[in-house]
Predict the 3D structure of the following.
Amino acid sequence: MDLLPNLANTDYSPDSLSNGDESVITPYGLSFARGTVGCYVISKTAYCPWTIQVGGDVIAYSNVKVTIQKHHGFLNGGWKNYKTHNFSYPINRTTSTIRNESSDRLSAEKLSAKLGGTFRTVKNGTYSAIANGYSYFEVK
């Protein structure tokens, strides 16, 4: 568990495409799109701040989701969804960056968080809110 990443981060831009990264999706209509989620634990509470950032447009609506998964062990099915936090709201002052944070009081266990959902920009419409991979953390 200690070797798993604590931060899931994705940066979609024309520069990343020129580096030969085949997993990168072009953010049509935007100069770049970036999603990040990372979790930390204080006492028995897990905090998972997330950020979505775009270039060339501004964000008008958040429908971002953070899904928390628990690890039940390999023989018991591995990672399973535990809880999903929905961040669905209009952005009153449109901006190129939105951020928020989920928090959960949890028992001792191994967990992960994944960024998902969508966001809507003013000029270019709806995009997926993603960060490649998971943020792994443990409540002790």
About this structure: Residues 14-18 form the longest helix (5 residues).
